[in-house]
Amino acid sequence: MTYFRAVDPFPLESAEHTKLHEVYTRLASGRLATTRCLECRTSAWPPRGFCGECASDRFEWVDLPGEGTLHAFTVQETGLPAGFQGPRVFAIVEVGEHRVFSVIVDADPARLAIGQRVRLTPIRVADDPRGNARWLPAFTPP
Length: 142
Known about the structure:
This protein is mainly beta. The chain contains one helix and ten strands; from the N terminus they run αββββββββββ.
């Protein structure tokens, strides 16, 4: 029996599908970025195509710090999605004024602690159907 993927589980990262593609371009170069409204100067995470404060759709891209603080985390050892090795550490990382939901990689979960400093280490996930690389934010202890 053949199964077809009905819904792409990865975000549409290319310029022809979303005006937020810049976040993935910057991740590929090791930078975490978000949008800042050109009207009221509010920045948001995740990046948004319009401002949640004033509803403007005029924004600019701003880089966030490359390091953050581990705010919360949980460890998943079983029931991981296909292609992911366990244990998997899911975390909320404070990066500047934002909290980013992400994963912690290359770390012993027993050695992690709330308040610990972590640095951005984007991970490459499965390429899109055209062979373009896809990136997601991840963090690792320094």
